[in-house]
Amino acid sequence: xxxxxxxxxxxxxxxxxxxxxxxxxxxxxxxxxxxxxxxxxxxxxxxxxxxxxxxxxxxxxxxxxxxxxxxxxxxxxxxxxxxxxxxxxxxxxxxxxxxxxxxxxxxxxxxxxxxxxxxxxxxxxxxxxxxxxxxxxxxxxxxxxxxxxxxxxxxxxxxxxxxxxx
Length: 166
Description:
2 domains, 10 strands, mainly beta, globular, single chain, 2 helices
């Protein structure tokens, strides 16, 4: 089951909950400048693995590689490095044809592009975005019908015009 969570109206923060069999994960994302941050938090130590793979859209130019426990992408005029807060594990049973790394989900893992970051840094930045955008999430939930005027339930909360359902 995938349960979409909170999302800031500017896209700087998103969250979701993923339940698979007996395992439960929270996945949060945030932006810091040009860097993307992802935090994967298992509710309890998971038996399954997280596989992070990279690819290039059909007909696009570039190269994807695994280098020193990082995924790297090189494209015309740009390169992207994906870093992790945990070391990868060897898993011979992953079925993928693209460069990838596999991680244990017995503990929380942080993923980021750009410069290296610690798990504490990623948690702090995601927590900052989670807290600073709280008012916008409420507005996103309130404005569910695009055909009716949007009236906030709480004073001082601005209302979005983007419909979330019809």
